[in-house]
Specification:
Helix content is 43%, strand content 22%. It is an alpha/beta fold.
Length: 156
């Protein structure tokens, strides 16, 4: 097993042990984080679901993020993570994870690799900013690994 497989299995086991459920809101990872978590037996006991909101339009239509907010704050920012977490509070889960970043070409003046990960656990939010390097796939992988590490840190 690779690092991501080991970490994601541990995350699922922690959620099952706590009898908690979680959901994801992914942008730059395009569902990669959800895929890594659902590869383990018992994941349906902990994982409620995932939204992949790759475009500004998806953020607006699905979560109701106002277009003027998206234009003023950008799709890749701490404020966007806060808004994604806040907008997904309607989901009846204990933990929500949100990810946004630049996995490909530079956008909004941000270089490839800039990524924000936000986790809301029972109303308390933790947000971290990362700068990864490599190809699009490598950045998505590194993001997923850091999501798992942060979840383990906050759940233990």
């Amino acid at each position: 097993m690779n690092e991501l497989e080991i970490l994601s299995k541990e995350v699922i086991q922690l959620f099952i042990k706590k009898n908690w459920r979680f959901c994801l809101v992914e942008t730059s990872t395009g569902g990669f984080v959800a895929d890594s978590l659902t590869n383990h037996d018992g994941s349906s006991r902990a994982f409620a679901g995932s939204l992949v909101l790759y475009s500004a339009l998806a953020k607006k239509v699905i979560l109701g993020v106002p277009m003027d907010f998206i234009q003023s704050e950008g799709q890749v920012s701490k404020k966007m993570i806060e808004k994604l977490l806040e907008s997904s509070e309607r989901f009846p889960v204990d933990v929500t994870v949100a990810v946004t970043g630049v996995a490909g070409n530079s956008i909004e003046g941000l270089p490839r690799g800039v990524t924000f990960i936000g986790i809301n656990i029972l109303g308390k939010t933790k947000i971290r900013k990362y700068t990864f390097s490599g190809t699009r796939r490598e950045i998505k992988y590194q993001t997923a690994v850091e999501v798992m590490k942060l979840l383990i840190e906050l759940l233990e």
